[in-house]
Amino acid sequence: MIILPKQTFLKLNVEKKKRIENALLNEFAHYPLNKAQVARIIKDASISRGAFYKYFDDLTDAYQYLLHQELGHVHVNLENQDYAEPQLIIRQMRRFIDEAHTLPSYSLFQMHFKYNENLLRPFIPTTEMKTTTWMYFILSHETLRSLFLDPANQEFYFNRFKTAIAQIGKEQ
To answer: Residue 19 in contact with residue 46, Cβ under 8 Å?
Structure first.
């Protein structure tokens, strides 16, 4: 599912769009969605309240747009994976774990898993997924969730992920 803001936002020049996206990231990385405020975003982005609502329907719309954008930078397309090569998925997860704390969106993801995921939890239809794709999807999501909620135990979560992926690979 592609989440887009209103056309007026998409038509903005790159600099203004980036300024607004940075303000959204700043807000949602520090406040759960139910405590976020348009007032702080518009002040940070130097735009009017009216402009904000020309770009987004509401805070939830802005949050979902930003989250979708940031996930796009790190998300692995499981549909296009070579399941004969489960080591690729393991390497991608390892790379993500090693680099995650350097991402500007790290705090956004922490807030998402800690507070916002349960507020929004969209239904992602999995009936069209192959069984292997579904297993990788669930394992990857739960591993990432655990990593962001309990970073002190990241090696435990990664090793469990690695073991599970290797087991699935053997059964294929």
So the answer is: yes
